[in-house]
Amino acid sequence: MGGTGPFPSSTGEPEKPVMGREEVDRVLAGLVAEHEAIESSLLALQDHAGRRLLEGAELTGVTKDRWATTEQAISLLWTYFDAYTDALNAAREVRARHRWPTPGELAELTELLRGPGITLPSSASLTGSPLLSEQLTLQALVDRMNRWYAEALDVIVTADAVWSALPARIDMLSAELRRTRSLAHSVGVRPGEHPSGDDLERITAELTSLRAEVVRDPLAFWSGASPSSAPGGGRPDTTRYDAAARALEDVRREIEAVLDVRQDAERRLMRLRDVLSRADRTLAEARQARGEVLAKIAASEVPAVSGPPTVLQEQLVTAAEYRRRAQWHRLSPLLESLEERADEELLRARESLTAVTAPLAVRAELRGRLDAYKAKVARHGLAEDPLLIERYDTARRMLWSAPCDLRAAEAAVLRYQQAAAETLAPRGTEPGGRRTGEVL
User: Fold this and answer.
1) Using one digit for the tens of pLDDT, what is the confidence trace for 159-206?
2) Lower Cβ count inside 10 Å, N or C end of the chain?
3) Within a domain: residue 4?
4) Which of 136, 155, 174 is the last residue of a domain?
């Protein structure tokens, strides 16, 4: 029945007014082979696992509509096959009358094999014909069978492909979901208490709904060409399944994070206590240093030192309570926030200590510079110079008295440096007042 369907064509030669004996015998031999091929294809369609599943399923949607039409087509295929069988038997009976058929028998055989002598009931639901019956040639009959067979096979194979792929994958994901739910429950991740618990409920509902829809309407979950017409041209539509799988993976990672919190909770809490304790000690040192600076340094702006934030200590107590009650899902985000804020608090305390002690650092630098120049002058045998002694004593008195005026002390140190440079200049200088080979 043609090269485009499962059944071969009844004849490949152009129609002739009356067929000869040899042509009749050749066509009849081909028809016998065709009959076997048609019967084999129809039996395979009848026994296809997908067809049996479709017959037993409670279908909905597009699958229900297409299967209703397909069932009619399969029924008519057998009716057409019976008519084809009858036409073949009638032709074989005529041919068996004589070894050498008479002209009348050849004309009868021509009509049987090529004429529109096959009467069939109307298939209005499939063809749209308003007639109660139709007269078809063998070729037209086989062409129509080819078309209906392809459409029926398309529905059956597509449904079977979806049923073979998606429900099994959904069941495996559902099993993984159950394991994740059990693990989540063990660490306190429950619906209404943690977002991941709510996510698990939504994924469960989605997988339940998805499986029911796939079982009842598999054709709605096919994307691309039919598997019966183009190998590799289509596939089950796994969009919703993939989204559920990704959502479950996100929840699983969240559960793992909660498990990590449970395992490392005590270590992280101890580190938090240590960081906050160091921040408190640093702030206390900064406050003490500020008092010292205010007492020892005059005419200097010293920044205020704030106290430790009580909210962090309160949150640390809350975190310890979460750990005691095994509320890991609440402890996890709190620890992450506390660790970040505790590190920031320690950094702030250190910056505060640096800021308030800056004037003392400046005084120490001036003291070191003054003593370095005095040592340099002494190496050149000028320690007893009256001007140098006077200016040194003035600078030292300012730097070692309290409160120290840093601006005045810096000016005094600078004057001593200048006097030392001028005193050393006659011993050999370079442009700029630096002695050859010496570094001031």
Assistant:
1) 999 999 999 999 999 999 999 999 888 877 888 878 888 999 999 999
2) C
3) no
4) 155
